[in-house]
Design goal:
about 210 residues; alpha/beta; Maf protein; 5 helices; disordered C terminus
Length: about 210
């Protein structure tokens, strides 16, 4: 069986990745499937550095080819914040609601046309043989004054995708994967596997 480990506790993220990689891996596991999976300090200064660190630790811990991403929101009016701190913007142990509330508070009074933002993703794939690949994606949008939609996670309800006139949380999973920063990186990863040495890499998880 071809297995892939995804270094995340987030079942929503696991579902997105599994959906995009159908036909490549037969089983996609994540950190939530391991009771003793270690806490990883994401102390890198860039998305790429954090993604590589997480993928290296994951491959060593699980013995499986491992995929890790570091994704975040960069807001022009905030000088690029939250950036690499996106998941913990409101402090250690904070949840999505707390992060969204802090973001809205910091953007209070800023006009709609000045609320441009982008979701950015760096995705790292590491094998037990030490092979490493990094893929990236980016989608532009803007931050609303209030959330809309019930799907997605993180900042999705606040992030308006202009071409659809909907937030990330209002899109279907298929629509989101077709345009999202993570979807872009995943398609590059999938193409790398299928166009080069899928059997030698994906087959390691048998």
């Amino acid at each position: 069986m071809k297995k892939l480990f995804v270094a995340t506790q987030n079942r929503g993220k696991q579902k997105e990745i599994e959906n995009c990689l159908k036909g490549v891996f037969e089983l996609v596991l994540c950190a939530a499937d391991y009771e003793d999976y270690p806490e990883i300090d994401e102390d890198g200064e860039t998305f790429e550095a954090n993604a590589l660190k997480k993928a290296r630790i994951a491959a060593g811990f699980t013995g499986l080819p491992s995929l890790a991403d570091d994704s975040g929101l960069v807001v022009d009016a905030l000088g690029g914040r939250p950036g690499v701190l996106s998941a913990r913007y409101a402090g250690p142990g904070c949840d999505d609601d707390a992060n969204n509330s802090k973001l809205l508070a910091e953007l209070s009074g800023i006009r709609a046309e000045e609320r441009r933002a982008a979701f950015v993703c760096a995705m790292a794939f590491v094998t037990q043989q030490g092979e490493e690949h990094v893929f990236s994606g980016r989608i532009e949008g803007r931050i609303l004054e209030a959330g809309r939609g019930n799907d997605g996670f993180g900042y999705d309800p606040l992030f308006l995708v202009d071409r659809f006139g909907k937030t990330m949380a209002e899109l279907t999973l298929e629509q989101k994967n077709s345009i999202s920063h993570r979807g872009q990186a995943l398609r590059l990863f999938r193409a790398c596997l299928l166009n080069s040495h899928a059997d030698s890499i994906a087959g390691e998880g048998r």
